[in-house]
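W.,

You were right to be curious about this one. When I first looked at the sequence I had no strong expectations either way, so I just let the prediction run and decided to look at it fresh. Below is the sequence, 87 residues in total, followed by the output.
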Amino acid sequence: MAKYNTFVVCDCRKRSTVLVTSSARKANAALWKGRRVDVWNENERTLTIYAHQAGKFRNYLQAEKEYICKKQLEAEVKNLERGIRRT
């Protein structure tokens, strides 16, 4: 595992892994009754989120939104420097 957050979606009944992703949005969408999300960071489980505790995902979703906005702004600046403009 890496230094960024990795989300592991597990099915509690079958005791199997459903999804492994670094996207908080994908993990949040896969979270419903009977599933849990384990948040891993640097090979350590930092948090376990069950469906009835979905509010704990807010921080991760907000961080992902900010990261995407930052990357999009950097790409737009780079494109402006190269002379490519969006319409």
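Here's what jumped out at me. The mean pLDDT is 88. And, maybe more interesting for your project: Strands lie at 6-11, 16-21, 35-41, 44-50.

Coffee later to discuss?

I.
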